[in-house]
Amino acid sequence: MSKKIKPSVASADTPETTPPRRSKSSVSPPLINKKAAARAAGDAARAAGVIDPFVRKKPVSSKPVRPRDLADARPPRSEAIEVDIMRLDADGVGIARHDGKDFIVAGAYPGEKVTATIEAKGQFRLVGRLRRVIKAHPQRIAKRCDSLTSCQGCPLLCLDEAAQFEIKQIRIRSAFNHYPQLKGVAIAPIWSAPEPFGYRSNAKLVFGRKRGAVQLGLYRRGTHEVVDLAGCPLHHPLINRIASVVREEVEKQEIYIYNADKGRGLLRYLLIRVSPARNKAMVTFVVAERDLKQLPHLAKSLQKRVPEVVSVQQNVNATTGNIIVGRDTQRLAGVSDLLDQVGDIRLQLAPASFFQVNHAQAARIYQLVREWARLQASETAVDLYCGIGGIALHLARDAGRVYGIETIEEAVKNARANALLNDLRNCIFIAGDAEEVVEDLCSEIQRAEVVVLNPPRSGCQPQVLKAAASLQPRTLIYVSCNPETLARDLSLLYPLGYVVDAVQPVDMFPQTAHIETVVRLVPITP
User: Fold this and answer.
1) Could you read off the pLDDT of 92-110 as tens digits, one per residue?
2) Which helix (H) or strand (E) holds 243?
3) Is 481 one of the annotated active-site residues of the chain?
4) pTM for this structure?
């Protein structure tokens, strides 16, 4: 349901002045410089918008332009639409219906009546900006971020924790209900985050310019417009401090920022990774081309102003797509890797290595996986999609042998170094695609008592699930960041002989719609 609301328009026309009519007997004015007169006329036309200031061409009309003509030429304001929010999408963004299309309104919640203006129109959907809440969700709370409606990075920010948990529980249950084998599965209450704000230990920020000023933040949803983040409430305080200094130094040193439309410039992205346990940071500048003139000076200035930055790197990404990190990384200052700690395990993190953004909740997940595994010194475990070894190293404290498989070679190097760092010599880490390596591993070890699956959002390939089941583990543990692909894969494991035994959701990403879920599966008893 929606209806149009007539927008309010200011009615303050600038009064016109009529020059006095000259009498026939008046004296003619003195002659003036013709070039100066033409220049003045051109300036006036440019100011009026008749001539493009960057194109040398004659005015399209010699008719004087009056203030009210300019007002008429402005694009009309978007109409305010009153809509009822029906649901949230997977990203936590409100969805209404208008003119037979989905109307997307970030910051609006189910059951609310709001007004919003249309910002973009597509074939099947409209994108709007929230203007006013007419009827609020009963658990809506005060706005806690000035960039909420423009950034849209944490759409549940204005709901209390209980309401956020209800949304996340419903999402998991809804995903499970698509499959008959999962409809009756019990889902435990969500583990609350000890720090609902300031928990993000890494950030990927994009550079931009607006009216000449340096912008450093996130792309606004569906656009290449950079929303400048002066201080994100979800970021670790050290991230916000580093971003502020980088913004100031780039402005001060006049470093050229990459322009995606023109394909020119240097600075593209800023990656910041923080060790909350040590309060140290690694900073990576993603650039369009290698630079050894401006960036070393920028790195030196940054470390001088923020001594907690122990590593500064540059990563070259010359592609024109949406990929953030390129293949070539070079150290500019400080150490090569960031030393961190999660639970009892010390970790070395490379610039491009993936690691969980919420250290406190990651530590709880790793401990839960270890408890569910109940490994003995004579047993073997396999960790698929092992990353830098966070889960594998926790399992290695109990197991006789642990195998870790990871696609990213740099992460595998980190995992091997982390095993030595923690004096765990019963780990074997293999670089390669899980679907290819796991089949070879099955033929080598034939059986593993515990198998852990920790895939990306897209979930596991069917051949990976088959290979995991063929190892005949007594316990299979699935760690997922996507309820929909989790439910799909759990349903595929059922005909392979495994049934869900326990489900533990973890609030890894407070203020967002994302939820981490840990599932234990056991063999189906005859």
Assistant:
1) 999 999 999 999 998 999 9
2) helix 237-253
3) yes
4) 0.81
